[in-house]
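Hey, I'm writing a tutorial for new members on how sequence and structure tokens pair up, and I'd like a real worked example in the thread rather than a made-up one. If someone can provide the structure for the chain below, I'll link this post from the tutorial.
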Amino acid sequence: MRLSAKVLVVGGGPSGSIAARTLAENGVDVVLLEKNLSFIKPCGGGIPYSAFDELTIPKLTIKKEVKSIRIVSPTGERVDINLKSGSLAIIQRGDFDAALRRQAEQKGAKVIQGEFTKIINDKRYYKIQANIDDRKSEIVTGYIIAADGINSRVRNALKIKPSRTIFTVSEHIKEIQTEICEFWFASSHAPNFYSWVFPSLDGISTGTGCPDPRKVNDLFEIFKKRKSINQEGQKRVYRIPIWQGNLYNKGNILFAGDSAGQVLPLAYEGIYNAMKAGEFAARAILEGKADNYKKLWKARFQKRFILMDKLGNYFLKDDASIEKLVSLHKSPDIQEASERLWLSKETSKQSLLNYIKLFGKFLH
């Protein structure tokens, strides 16, 4: 089989699907190649509700709307925050990803289940080798958007060094119900990260993370004991990239989402950022300049990511610093500023400056 398209998007998750949809609705011939259309990524599934209007995503994919969160310090101090300027939408990744792919397909993108295997650059265009329907196939294209996740095969094919990662383990437990999102901090069960309990359609999603894959399962059991979770569910281990901000494009090959490590530090929010990255990658191609992708991404996210990286390095370094982080969130001003940046996704310079002012003494 031999196919051709102006753009090949590798990866059918949120980033790749938004990229393919954006291109297709602007009349671009685009193929979206996804290795496994049935894959469900381990994920808490939290997205700012405002993203659904911003990115024209079907709200039917929302399983629950969360209007309060709880953060818990290592010593057990709890701060409950009622969300006033936004809310969190909880989605199920299988349904959500499939809905975004359908949108791309309805706009004219060709969605194919197949596995990327090799790339050849002959200076005029790219030849992609892939396995489609158990047959070796070739796709000829002028641009590639690599949105194929933490284990990006496109990235590996170009011999680009992989991102550093956080290892997570999670369980879906049906016997427990909750209406809030909880973030539990302590080095005893989540060094340099956090443990979580999120509502899901029929129970909870709970898990923890750490940089050491040898410890993550034991740490999760420690967290479950702390939280008094005795039930067992389906356990899955996965990786989250640590943002470095050093990969955008190599020629006409653009990297978006987890393949580029675009997960917000400290909060470790990935879905929204991945979708916006897919949109920006598509816009750069529409402008005919792949290098514009870096400019678009940095204009929207660079200062925010640097700020959160600095705050994460300070507050997640030890339990005493985490106690400060939780205590600070008792302040209504900090709660409001956090909501504006994380949930409302305000892009004004003043919103970011207000946040920096509140946390300025911890940034040096």
